[in-house]
Amino acid sequence: MNQVNNPSFSNNRLVNWFSLSSPSIFYPVAGKLIPIFWALAVVFGLAGLWVSFFVAPVDAVQGQGYRIIFVHVPASWMSMFLYLVMAAWAGLGLVFNTRLSAMMAQALAPVGAWMAFLSLWTGALWGKPMWGAWWVWDARLTSELILLFLYLGFIALQSSIDDRRRADKAGAILALVGVVNVPIIYFSVKWWNTLHQGASVSLTKAPAMAQTMLWGMLLMALCFWMYSIAVGLMRVRAIILEREAHTDWVRQLSKVKS
Amino acid sequence: MWNSPAEFFAMGGYALYVWGSFGVCALVLLLEPLVVHARFKAIVRRLKQEQLAEQFDKESSQ
Amino acid sequence: MRALLAIIHRDLLLVMRRKSEVLTALFFFVVVTSLFPLGIGADAALLRKIAPGVIWVAALLSTLLGLHRMFAADYQDGALEQLALSPQPMVLLVAGKIIAHWIVCGLPLVVLAPVIGIQFDLDASSLYVMMGTLLLGTPVLSLLGSIGAALTLGVRGGSVLMSLLILPLYIPVLIFGAGAVYANSVGLNTSGHFSMLGALLILALAFVPWVSAAAVKIAIE
After folding, report:
1. Statement: residue A5 has pLDDT above 70
2. What whole-number percentage of chain B has pLDDT above 70?
């Protein structure tokens, strides 16, 4: 009955999704989602750390030192994944001219940069005892370093252009150009003879590592992922307020009204 | 698995590397949200001050 | 096609009137590469080892020096907007500017490199390989550089920012270019390196003009 009388009912779900692209509607939604993702991050983190230190056995070759894998691999995965997500949001913002998509890209860039830094840092601390060197210029490490530079370049470009819309679009072009680097990082261990270990986890084959180690890695990766979403949403809320400062809905926020 | 806390912290001789990695990760994952929160508070404070300033202008011009 | 040649002709003409700008970048290349033997000493074996890297890095940096001229002057006096408004596709105009930049900044490097290489005691075959890698690589440098130049048009501190943005993109060219010369000097096969450089050139030619045209349009509006 209601469906017949209310012509917009059948479009309701479609309209609801697109309305999220408006900063004023997304802002409170993000606010509600943040605690959920923090909770998930904590749960996965605790479970992951427990598996990493109390379930996963000692490694035959690397002793206890291999446990760095439980932060190194998640950070590396996230650095690549977040770059793709950031470039996707930036690209959407460029094509559809939506401000919020560009704001999401802007919010994710620092998280991704930290993940790239952590990947390089934990990698160096793992490489020193195992390879004897803090750093080698092999394909995977070099392209991960380039990824960090790309993140920093994106952040620098956005902060030096005063016109916000131009900054969004220019950043989008830079982010999209850099996407080519991510497959290079991923496949570098297959394409070149590198010092870095080859892929042990694949979507098609059985993993070449103990079950418990795999679980520890996956749980920590999920923790990092939930963390990235939580921090990204926190930052995008701050960015929304900064960029939409003079709109009515911001003035009407209970936080801001004195 | 671990016979004593000392063994746990020693990590089979790799203590510097393992705790150096986990430690810096924990540091970044704790500090970054704090920095973002500080940024959020700063913009809210700025918006509040702007509203107060506008109200003051309105009242004093009446 | 005529538009392309017209743009190249115009840019070259403008450069000829201000030869000093171009010569500065080339002079930079020569001076920087000469500083290394002076600073490190005359150990021929060491110089031969570092020559590929030093010459390639100097080529990168001197290309960067000349990049701001690609769009900045036209942007400042409004000629770039006029070019954008013309019926010719922006891609052609940008491609023309990139070609002109390469003729002025890249090609002289290819010609000068053997002279520099002799300073580093490189043998004849390595000199040929050096020229070949620069011949394939410098167009890629001009192409990728145009993206950075377009993105940072009119931005405060644009040239430093441009360097920060472009140098990560230059790294693969550097690795394969210098790697080829080094491989040749120790007697290894260089076909792999040249294939990669060729692939980079083809990919850059296929995509970059469109990306740079989009970036210029964003900067203008």
Report:
1. no
2. 100
Residue in chain A nearest B27 by alpha carbon: A118
Computed from CA positions of residues B31, B36, B42, B44, in that sequence, does the dihedral angle turn out positive or negative? negative
Query: Is B26 near chain A, with CB under 8 Å?
Result: no
Query: Which residue is listed with tokens 């510097």?
Result: B16
Q: Where are the domains of chain B?
A: 24-62
**Structural domain harbouring C162:** 2-220
- Residue with tokens 């704090």, as numbered in its chain: B34
Q: Is B50 helix (H, G, I), strand (E, B) or coil?
A: helix
CB-nearest partner of A235 from B22, B36, B46:
B36
Q: Show the CA angle centred on residue A59, arms to residues A55 and A64, nearest 5°.
A: 75
- Looking at the complex, does the CB of residue C206 fall below 8 Å from at least one CB of chain A? no
What is the tens place of the pLDDT at every residue in A120-144? 999 999 999 888 888 888 888 888 9
Other residues' Cβ atoms within 10 Å of the Cβ of residue A209: 16
Burial of A219 (0-12, 13-18, 19+ CB in 10 A): buried
| ipTM (interface predicted TM) | 0.90
Are A171 and A72 within 8 A, CB to CB? Answer: no
Instruction: Write down the H helix ranges in chain A.
Output: 2-5, 12-19, 23-50, 69-96, 99-131, 139-160, 164-178, 181-191, 211-243, 248-251
Per DSSP, B13 falls in state G
Tokens, residue A242:
């900064």
pLDDT at A7 over 50: no
Closest CA to C35 of C132, A14, A139, C27: C27
Q: Tally helices (H) and strands (E) across chain C.
A: 10, 0
What distance in Å separates the CA atoms of residue A141 and residue A119, rounded to the nearest whole number? 9
Is A63 close to B14, i.e. CB distance below 8 A? yes
CB pairs under 8 A between A and B: 95
> Does A174 lie at the interface with C, CB-CB under 8 angstroms?
yes
- The separation between CA A147 and the C-alpha centre of its own chain, rounded to angstroms, equals 13
Neighbours of B3 (CB within 10 A): 7
For residues C87 and C19, give the distance between their C-alpha atoms in angstroms, rounded to a whole number: 31
- Any idea which residue has 């990204």 for tokens? A232
Tens of pLDDT, residues C10-61: 988 988 888 887 788 889 999 999 898 888 888 888 888 899 999 999 999 9
CA nearest to A71, candidates A115, A10, A19: A115
What is the CA angle A122-A125-A130, rounded to 5?
120
Is residue A258 scored above 60 in pLDDT? no
Find tokens 């479009």 and name the residue.
A11
Tell me the C-alpha distance between C53 and C45, whole Å.
14
